[in-house]
Amino acid sequence: MKIVLYGISRSGKSSFIKRLCNNNKKIKHLTGSKTLYKLAKNKYGIDFEQLNDDKKVILRSKLINEFALESKKHPNIIVDGHYSFPNKEYNDFDIVMKDDDLQFYDLFLYMYKPSNLILKNTIEVNKEQWTDFLKLEDNINLWQYFEIESLRKRLKSIGKELVVLNEDLSVCEQYISDVIEGVIKTSEVIVDEAVKEILLNDNLQEIFLLDCDKTLSINDITNFVIKEKNIENKIVIDNFKENFYTQYQSYRFHKHILNNNIKPYVKEGVQKIELNYNLINNIKNTNVQTVGLTLGLADIWSEVNKVNNIFTISPCLVGKKDDNNIYMSSFTKYLIGKKLKEKGIKVYSIGDSIADMMLLEEADKSWVVINNKLSSTAKKYFIENPNSKIYQISYSNEKYDNLKVEDKICLK
Fold first, then answer.
1. 58-72, 104-118, 176-190 — which is least confidently predicted?
2. Residues 148 and 272 occupy one common structural domain
3. In terms of Cα–Cα distance, which of 367, 331, 366, 363 is closest to 347?
4. Which helix (H) or strand (E) holds 338?
5. Buried/exposed 306-319: b ≥16 CB within 10 Å, e otherwise
6. Distance (Å, rounded) from C-alpha 164 to C-alpha 73?
7. How many independent structural domains does the chain possess?
8. Domain for residue 412, yes or no?
9. Are the CB atoms for 366 and 360 separated by under 8 Å?
């Protein structure tokens, strides 16, 4: 597997990769900066930093060829990549990642760190390059958010996910090792398997892809289990901070916070769930086949479905159960919808939160549900995206200001 880890200067990419490779001898670290210095010496006889910008661009374009040769010797490689640098005026960023990188790597990771930690590293390391820029936390945030959003957009265009890591390095390390060992499936594999199974259903022309917690239910049954397991809510909030809902956050939540141990709570969870019958009956009246997609607790929703028959076709529900290795993300939901559309299936979707927005925008028609109160992150999203095509339903308790309203689910 070919892995690349991006992140801004002083985010700790190199030290993390060193730790990872020391603990997992199956992974070979290929250092981008050292390779560039070697290429510069061989071709121009000087250090890379002494080259003009044009020559730097030429050598960066040759990096992938060097890494491709190394990947033939080592089945698992990881590269510390640079996506961009502040320009000379410090008022924008120059992207240095090449399009060839998008096609070369199998797993794209981003090392996100809170700005105060990067500032601390900057002061401690005190290297000349970028020090002035990185001494302002606002600059650190701007750089990280620019890279994450730009990378996400480019990867999304070719059907790949940007997985955002955090400062919990032991879990980051375990996540990468589990992907390499095949203990968990990448988002792209999850999507391919789900779409293949959905397409086995005969005469399928249209489909509902449905979020579960706080969409099909009034309450969030995941929160019930969190309380029953005596997990501090702050731990869960911190896991998804900055609204990162990539596969890593799902993995960390299920495997390291919940410890993949939900079955003792399934029976009571089913009893505690408050279903949104208005919405469920509305969906059933359309006679369109349905599949559930959840970042939450699929074990509970599977039992709910046995009684209520909400999800009508195989695989019925795509999500994490105690006995599977499926860790969902916002991107997974989106890509399932996109690939079904590419197969000529008309896709409808319903969700409630920022984690659903990628799929809701991709669907042929979609609705956002508000059961208890407006989501602050969804509200912010709709303010920033005033031309969103997403609808809301009149029987929701509250409304977003700038979305069109329908009395019920109308497929036309």
1. 58-72
2. no
3. 363
4. helix 330-342
5. eeeebbbeebbbbb
6. 28
7. 2
8. no
9. yes
Are the C-beta atoms of residues 320 and 254 closer than 8 Å to each other? Answer: yes
Same domain, 131 and 10: yes
Q: What is the pLDDT of residues 139-194, one digit of tens each?
A: 999 999 999 999 999 999 999 999 999 999 999 999 999 999 999 999 999 999 99
Q: Which residue has the tokens 């510390």?
A: 80
Distance CA 48, CA 150 (A): 26
Q: Where are the beta strands (DSSP E) in 71-200?
A: 77-80, 84-86, 93-95, 107-111, 162-165
Statement to judge: residues 53 and 99 lie in one domain: yes
Residues 258 and 223 sit within 8 Å (Cβ to Cβ): no
Q: Given 153, 181, 209, which residue is the final one in a domain?
A: 181
Domain with 199, as residue range(s), is 187-406
Burial state string for 57-93 with b = 16 or more CB within 10 A and e = fewer than 16: eebbeebbebbeeebeeeebbbbbbbbbbbeeeeeeb
Using CB atoms within 10 Å of the CB of residue 328, give its burial: 0 to 12 exposed, 13 to 18 middle, 19+ buried. Answer: buried
Dist. CA 369–CA 280, nearest whole Å:
12
236 and 172 in a common domain: no
Bridge partners of residue 165, in order along the sequence? 111
CATH of the domain at 15: 3.40.50.300
Residue 41 is assigned to a structural domain of this protein: yes
Least Cα distance to 297 among 336, 335, 270 occurs for 270
**pTM of the predicted structure, to 2 decimals:** 0.93
Query: What CATH number did the domain enclosing 305 receive?
Result: 3.40.50.1000
- Using 50, 70 and 90 to split pLDDT, how confident is the model at 109? very high
Which strands form 317-318's sheet, in the order they lie side by side? 317-318, 289-293, 206-210, 346-351, 365-368, 391-393, 404-406
Q: Which of 166, 181, 196 is the last residue of a domain?
A: 181
177 and 199 inside one domain: no
